[in-house]
Design goal:
The protein is built from seven helices and four strands, in the order E-H-H-E-E-E-H-H-H-H-H. By secondary structure, it is an alpha/beta fold. It starts with a strand and ends with a helix. Bound molecules: zinc ion. Zinc ion (ZN) binds next to helix 6.
Length: 132
Amino acid sequence: MRVIRSKTKQAERLKDQADLVCADILKYAKLIGLDDEWRFAVTFKHLSDCLATTEAEVEYRKATMEFDLAAISKQGNDLIAPTVRHELFHIPCWRLHEITEALNPEAEALMVKYGEELVTFLEHMPVWKELK
Ligand SMILES: [Zn+2]
């Protein structure tokens, strides 16, 4: 399991937060049961409408993750761990996300909405407070 980090200005400017994100990716990926083959390609950059995004290539055990550290750090470092968990939970849900492309627009919108709700529920499970 490893994190491949791209060199961006945001990653240089907010190095401490970038280090925390990378450490939390490895910590929580293990805790949620992703196997050692997984590689996480991580980019820190401005995102216009969200704090982070994740896409997965499950068959190749590769995830592409983007984090807007400037937006995250405005709200404090306490937001890093839940954001990382949220993004990691998109990985085991990715197969469901793939089938949304085969659905009609209304069903696709519902699938995206319920997928986000599920991932957000998992992100906030009480077990994470006990592990702190
Ligand atoms: Zn999400």
